[in-house]
Specification:
Radius of gyration: 21 Å
CATH architecture of the largest domain: Beta Barrel
Oligomer: single chain
CATH topology of the largest domain: Lipocalin
Order of helices and strands: HHEHEEEEEEEEH
Helix content: 25-40%
Structural class: alpha+beta
Distance between the termini: 74 Å
Number of helices: 4
Number of domains: 2
Strand order of the largest sheet: 1-2-3-4-6-7-8-9
Largest sheet: 8 strands, antiparallel, barrel
Shape: globular
CATH class of the largest domain: Mainly Beta
Strand content: 35-45%
Number of strands: 9
Length: about 160
Amino acid sequence: MSGPVKKLYLFLPMLLSIFTSSLVCAAERITVHDLIGVWTASDEGTNHFMTAEQVRRNCQSFKMIIHADLRLEAITYGDDGGFMFWAVAETPCMLKDNIIACKVNVHTKKRMLSKNKPVAWSLKAVGNGLFDSKTLINSDAEDTMYRCDDTVQEASLITSKKQI
């Protein structure tokens, strides 16, 4: 085999490897459209087998709302149905390499607890519309994200809390 042909045989597998790995990465890339909606989280770690009733119950106590412009809200509800904690990104978050990151203001009914607190999660699609998320700042909490039945408009507190 001559020199250029031999080099071509060595180069082709490498080129094929690069091409197929980029296809795999493209298939796993999470887009804004994948995330828009109202979500809840699994209890105590990842769980890909929650029942519809468990998801419904968790949606009543915790919601993460991801808006089309990538603003984010996380709401923890109290026993009275009102919010105990409300974290809101008043500016859009960034989504890059399956990591969503932003700064949030954290409120209780009575006061603001934190302003411009950085938050970030790595996300991984696990099939059936589920995502595993891992907190990247201050803890290594891992959960599975499940969709709630609410619409963004129904669940969002941004409209009712514009004065904040």
